[in-house]
Write a structure and sequence with these properties.
By secondary structure, the chain is an all-alpha fold. Helices cover 38% and strands 0% of the residues. It has helices spanning 36-44, 49-53, 70-73, 80-89, 92-109, 113-117. It is globular and about 45 Å long. The relative contact order is 0.17.
């Protein structure tokens, strides 16, 4: 079984396939995936709520509010820690770590997915949604 390389910035931590719980569906619970110091820095540098809603009107109770990774990665409004965090979690390297940990479980849940896509998960190209190329 392949284990993910330790990456303090990865939400996968050092998880491997044996860390996946199968019931009621394949999922993981990682108690402390991030280095404590990095987590504290991210918490301290988390943008003010106004940053997320500044262009929205009529916000409903419990409404999900999202910012695209593309709008964070090269945006100096966000700390370098946050930009690096998003850069890594939208990278081909992170995709390969997901496949190493969850690939077989995804194959079991969706046995035709690779065939329909015409490539094994390991060969999929990933990029930031909305980025050119």
């Amino acid at each position: 079984m392949q284990r993910v390389s330790p990456k303090p910035q990865s939400i996968l931590g050092t998880a491997g396939p044996e860390d996946v719980r199968r019931s009621p569906f394949a999922h993981m619970v990682i108690e402390q995936p991030l280095d404590k110091d990095l987590y504290q820095q991210l918490e301290d540098e988390f943008p003010l709520p106004e940053r997320f809603v500044k262009n929205l009107t009529n916000i409903a109770s419990n409404q999900a509010i999202r910012i695209r990774a593309l709008d964070i990665i090269d945006n100096s409004e966000f700390s370098e820690n946050w930009r690096s965090f998003f850069r890594y979690h939208t990278s081909p390297e992170f995709w390969q770590n997901i496949v190493a940990v969850m690939g077989e479980h995804i194959r079991q849940a969706h046995p035709q997915l690779e065939h329909r896509a015409g490539a094994a998960f390991e060969d999929w190209r990933v990029k930031v949604h909305g980025a050119p190329g």
